[in-house]
Amino acid sequence: MSQTPQIVTRFAPSPTGYLHIGGARTALFNWLYARGRGGKFLLRIEDTDRARSTPEATAAILKGMAWLGLDHDGDVVSQFDRADRHAEVALEMLANGHAYKCFASQDEIQAFREEARAEGRSTLYQSPWRDADPATHPDAPYVIRLKAPREGKTVIRDEVQGDVTIRNDQLDDMICLRSDGTPTYMLAVVVDDHDMGVTHVIRGDDHLNNAARQTIVYQAMGWDLPVWAHIPLIHGPDGKKLSKRHGALGVEEYEAMGYPATAMRNYLARLGWSHGDDEFFSDAQALEWFDLSGIGKSPARFDFKKLDNLSGQHLAAMEDADVLAALQGYMEAAGEISLQSQQIDLVSSAMYVLKTSAKTLPQLLEKARFATVSRPIDRDEKAEKALDEVSRGILKELTPQLQNGSWDRNTLEDTLNGLAEAHDLKFGKLAAPLRAALAGRAVTPSVFDMMLVLGRDETIARLEDASA
């Protein structure tokens, strides 16, 4: 019985900038498809454009993928480093008659196109050297062009788009090797995918037309075609292609905005792919459910409200230690001063109330302020207003009542409610100055949670500071 070949996917970004959110989703889809089927997920940096490719951009791409948790198999492949192999394939196609030497100059090609345009013909260049006798070849620079079929059609069997048919008379004899001996991107992609054993090419649908031209290279070399899956691009809320005007584009910007990586994976997976009505799901569920059949044909729309909602759900569902690790990672990415050991202990003990009331890590950090600040507490304007003379007097009265007795929620509730009743106050009127004293803010977790986390000595010290 024959074994099913192992699935191999790849992500192949160009290192000309940050990891774009669209690229991150492409990487995620490839990662999910391979990892969910026990396959391999490979990473190739398409750095043939030497003028625009930078080591800094490669580092940014690797950093973005590491934050998203998209681990790859084997070493990172540099497309530029494989130029000799690409040239070797071009020469092999030349030798087997699937490619030819073209000696046409740029001026000749331009003249052909202008004449074709004037006569209303196709401007796809048809080289006079395609079927020329090698004996007539001049001693001059040349490019190697692929011999594309002139008649019939090429059908791309796409798992997302369905069968896409392109007439062969719309395909040009693309250049595979330039006159300086360097390979073109279109050839390099096919050679790399073949040599890396890629079985499934999952990428943006802006590459759909490339698939027809690349198919001809596969056929010329007698190589098996990969499974194609071209996914629609991401649009902004206004339905236009995602761009800077819609907000953040790079993955690192979302890390710095304080979205946990697990929420980002969930949200990106839902951008253009669905599993029934499921919106919130775990990594394990995504790996189990993800399939190419769930990818839609229409562009997905990026929606910050949905991202915020998912982010809040993930924070609430995460283990406390994972939230703390994500918080510290966010603080580093945002340039915040990292937490000290005592602050970490207090934030950890407060996590049960913090993670259920925040949608993003900055919101969680703001809620955790009472656990990260030290005395004397810096108070904002609203908190300062809550500490009027009457409130300070009530806090002075409360302090000795907290010196003795159990330090548990029931005892604290009885003590504070009793004090509010004694002054004929609703509890909210007492809570406001307590929040100001304990956190320096008007909006905080419950005063009981803060007191329990801070402990008796620190709570009393903060109350004494505020009532002085």
UniProtKB/TrEMBL annotation:
**List of residues binding ATP:** K244
Annotated Aminoacyl-tRNA synthetase class I anticodon-binding domain residues: 342-466
Q: Please tell me which stretches of this chain the record labels as motif 'HIGH' region.
A: 13-23
Localisation per UniProt entry: Cytoplasm
Principal place where this protein is found?
cytoplasm
Q: List the EC numbers from the record.
A: 6.1.1.17
Query: Which CDD domains does the UniProt record give?
Result: GluRS_core
Q: GO MF annotations for this entry?
A: ATP binding; glutamate-tRNA ligase activity; tRNA binding; zinc ion binding
Q: Which PANTHER family match?
A: GLUTAMATE--TRNA LIGASE, GLUTAMATE--TRNA LIGASE, MITOCHONDRIAL-RELATED
Family, similarity comment: Belongs to the class-I aminoacyl-tRNA synthetase family. Glutamate--tRNA ligase type 1 subfamily.
Know the name of this protein?
Glutamate--tRNA ligase
